[in-house]
Amino acid sequence: MAIGECGLDYDRYEFADRLTQLEVFEPHFRLTEKYNLPMYLHSRATGNEFIDIVRANRARFPTGVVHSFTGTMEEMQQICDLDLFIGINGCSMKTEENCEVVKAIPVERMMIETDCPYCDIRNSHASAKHVKTKFPRKAKDKYDAESADFNVVRDRNEPCTIVQIIEVIAALKGISTQEVADISWANTVRMFNMQDN
């Protein structure tokens, strides 16, 4: 469906230093060009380096999404200018500044994600005040598939929490949750070149 997740993460040098990350990023553009697939991109704390590389290679891939976006208003605009999608999850809306950036993302460029088991909306996040759907939480590592009650594991994000992302985006943009879901689905269908049945 896509090439990636690939990109740069300058907050995580314990996994790969900057030069190694730059070296292994380039082959992903060859793959997407060869197979004509969209790119699933990652960028964290890279300054303009990520954008510069993607811009230089933009003609090599049909489309893509910069997932788990936590960047600035300027970075958001640069991604939109490259005709790419922006993936929003709980980490995308930690601060009031983050929420203002999400509010400004054009709906035709927006996608939603959980990035589970990470990136949930925490009570300490600025976005938490907009969450309406709450899930009972069990103690960490106490998932029980046989349980009649639906509970999520504490400190682990679950796919069902996608509804919370939708609720926050709807509140920030002043539109309905159904509109957010419909727009995000249409963008997903468009990015992955799927048939919408």
Task: Give short descriptive properties of this protein.
197 residues, alpha/beta, two-stranded parallel ribbon, 6 helices, 7 strands
What is the overall silhouette? Answer: globular
Strand order of the largest sheet: 1-2-3-4-5
State the low-pLDDT regions, or none.
Answer: none
* Most strands sheet: 5 strands, parallel
The count of strands amounts to 7
Description:
The chain is of the alpha/beta class. The protein has six helices and seven strands. The chain has helices at 18-35, 49-57, 73-81, 96-104, 162-173, 177-191, and strands spanning 3-9, 39-44, 64-66, 85-88, 110-112, 137-138, 152-153. A five-stranded parallel sheet has the order 1-2-3-4-5. It has a two-stranded parallel sheet with strand order 6-7. α5 (162-173) crosses α6 (177-191).
In short:
The protein is of the alpha/beta class and 197 residues long. It is built from six helices and seven strands, in the order βαβαβαβαβββαα.
